[in-house]
Design goal:
single chain; about 250 residues; mainly beta; five-stranded antiparallel β-sheet; four-stranded antiparallel β-sheet
Amino acid sequence: MKKLLIFVTIFITCPIMVSCKSENYNVFFYDLLSEQSYEIGYTSEKLDIIKYTDFDFSILPEGILVGFIGIESNSYIGVCPFSNVRFSSKQLQLSDFLYTENTFLSEINTDLSIKWYSKISDDNVTFVEDEEVYLDVNIGYYSLGVQSFGIGAYRFGVYDMLGYELEDIYIYNVNTGFTITLTEPSTLLSKFTFSKITITNTEENVKIFTPKAYVGGVIKDVLSSNGKITYTFGNQSIELYTRPIVKRS
């Protein structure tokens, strides 16, 4: 009877010891423009893919917020570039706002990829903007005639200094656009704001290069249809190209 009691005690306590080693992960959204963080949920697993619908983005302010989803434990920080769009019912009565929110809803992936980094200590990480730059971006090669770009979204790749490409991000424009008449096929460029972001308390001293906002304007470039515009970030050369998803007339 005494031996049986010892066996039962060990059997019960082993799962408890294992569970104590697991980590909880807080999930938050960091807004690049306001530099504010919003708690949107939690998970008990270190996931490489998360579902957007599993977290409470309704607590974010209305409007367009550009930044990162962060998933943090004592040992790791997971990062996913993300733009959230949500307008008031009054704003959605205007066609431009309605078009922009519908673009967001149609383009958003339910499944989002997470890039994980190791932390130095169990202190919370912070996102620090090292530099803001204004750059002309290739928005495509177009035939002659009138080319009109209205409100909508521009899809970009996001990169870290280690050479990894993170989840794509969308930069939205609800204010203005442009119209240009081309007398010959040309590459068109438009201007965007980019940020160089450091994630503190990471072993690799992680730095990320991401678009932040649409500035606007248009210029013609001498690039051929296969030409590229690049920007040097650390030891890598990043192509400044975006896929427009905008109103065309």
